[in-house]
Amino acid sequence: MAGFFKKIFSFGKKEVVEERVDETAPLPPIKWDALEALKPEAEQAAPEVSAREPEPAPHPPLDGEGRHEVAGRGDRADAEARASHPHPRAALGTSPIEGEVEPTPQPAPEEPKPEPAPAIPPAPEPTVPPEPEPLPGPKPEEEPQPAPQTPEPPAPEEVPPAQPEPLHAPAPEPAPQEVPAPAPAQPDIEPSRPEPQPEPAPVEVPTPPAEVPPAPVEVPPAEAPSVEPSAEADAEIAPPIRQPAPVEPQPILAEIAPEPEAVPSPPKPAPSAGKVTVSKKVEQKAEPVKAPEPAPRRSWFQRMREGLARSSRELTGNIAGVFTKRKLDEDTLQDLEDVLIRADLGVETALRVTDSLASSRYGRDVSDSEVRAVMAAEVEKVLTPVAKPLELDLSHKPHVILVVGVNGTGKTTTIGKLAAKLTDGGLKVMLAAGDTFRAAAIEQLKIWGERTKSPVIATKLGADAAGLAYDAFEKAKEAGSDVLIIDTAGRLQNKTELMAELEKIVRVLGKLDPEAPHTVLQTVDATTGQNALNQVEIFRNVAGVNGLVMTKLDGTARGGILVAIAAKHRLPVYFIGVGEQVDDLEPFSASEFARAIAGVA
Ligand SMILES: Nc1nc2c(ncn2[C@@H]2O[C@H](COP(=O)(O)OP(=O)(O)OP(=O)(O)O)[C@@H](O)[C@H]2O)c(=O)[nH]1
Known about the structure:
Residues 572-585 form the SRP54-type proteins GTP-binding domain. Part of the signal recognition particle protein translocation system, which is composed of SRP and FtsY. SRP is a ribonucleoprotein composed of Ffh and a 4.5S RNA molecule. GTP binds at residues 405-412, 487-491, 551-554. InterPro entries: AAA+_ATPase, P-loop_NTPase, Signal_recog_particl_SRP54_hlx, SR_rcpt_FtsY, SRP/SRP_N, SRP54_GTPase_dom, SRP54_N_sf. The chain is of the alpha/beta class. 36% of the residues lie in helices and 9% in strands. The protein contains 19 helices and twelve strands. The strands form three sheets. Strands 7-6-8-5-9-10-11-12 form an eight-stranded mixed sheet, sandwiched between helices. It has a two-stranded antiparallel sheet with strand order 1-2. A hairpin with a 3-residue loop joins strand 3 (276-278) and strand 4. It is elongated and about 155 Å long. The N and C termini lie far apart (133 Å). Residues 45-241 and 249-260 have low confidence and may be disordered. The protein binds guanosine-5'-triphosphate.
């Protein structure tokens, strides 16, 4: 190729000077604007050849004359060729003159490149704007490939602009996402920079989906074809002189590559010692949560003693006040009697205590502890005859227990507790919800029935209680129950019609068994006080109460009233209630109760 000369006519010297042309030197920039101005209007009409590829002929050999015209006519021809054969981008609205070195910098292969193997992921090309669709089609290679130097289209007179030899037969279908992809669009491409080798990254780019989130913007697959075909073109054609180089590829690649490793998953806590389950993942087996140890329950006696503490404190304090440094005389005995009566023990019991003291210690110095000991002994004497166990005559089938008492004194609760004792003892128990005035009472009894596995006979609200008692008695007979416990309405004893209902219940039960009800228990609230005496009086007369259950002795009981009731009515006290739980029904003990209320250890 040596022998290119440039003839320069010098007006000053009137001669032609020949200069050797360095064909490898970069050509001066083409003044497109100047050429455009020189072009006639008609020539600027863009034919629809834009889709056709220009001849990818190798650089035509230029003789000296030809080269001489390159600066003038050659540039014009080039401009005309551009006008008549706009760059494919022009058809897409992109200005073909985006840079001085415009014509597509990618060397054009002779044949359309086959589609890159789909197995090879595209190499990340950071310089190209991200392509949403990875289409590694052959379009980039099919772009008109200019000569390594400035494109040299044929002269306008030799090759009509409208008939440039297409590089490839039909132009590629205008895939909008493919054309703008190639890097040559960048105006500031380094022409002399060689085409970067395709990155081996394709194999590395696919990131483990579980660990690294996809970074679509950073790894546009559409860029791959622009890289790989270029490499092939390098192999087929002479080394390209001007190859568009990606702009700053390395920094972005550096961002992509380390990503999989650069995002370490947070350290997972290793399961501690113990059992683990492996299902979807390894999970530590939850240690069974130990229920906190329930506080040891106080004995019923402790609870009763604490319940009687109020009575006991008041009583013993007053006793101590009476007998501080005083001899036992008539005045002190009178004062002691008053203290005992105020403690609900009743006149009879009070006199028993004072009489006992007077007979043994009259005229002597007496301490309060001596007085309390005498009192405990006398109270015990009063209570011992009534502290009897409940006896059931099971010759009656069933033994009928009628439970009465003022509302709220603990009838239903006591029935439940008692049923538990009986069923625990192997007896067959049936319950009857005779309190037809209160829906809650019926439900409450049903709950106790479930707890104690005792059938409950109930009827609708407001129904005749006597009729229910009769039905329950028959059913208990049929069922072979050992015990039938009948609940009743807890109404005030001064209501005549309510008392009449109790009398009626007793009457109808007697029709099935003249001795029924065999036991009539009355619940007495130990916190009631003096009114309990009247309650027992009335229920005893109406319903024939023949036994008592003193309830709520675990509360702020006024225990003295039990002594008064026992002394007056001499009714057996079968049980005391010391709580709301099923086993909070204790047999009554005269000595324990007496010592508790007298404050004697
Ligand atoms: N602390 C304590 N509470 C009790 C005792 N006995 C019953 N109770 C409570 O006293 C309240 C009334 O008890 P019930 O069994 O419903 O009394 P009732 O006589 O059947 O009442 P009525 O159905 O209205 O006639 C309930 O909250 C019981 O839990 C006891 O011995 N100690």
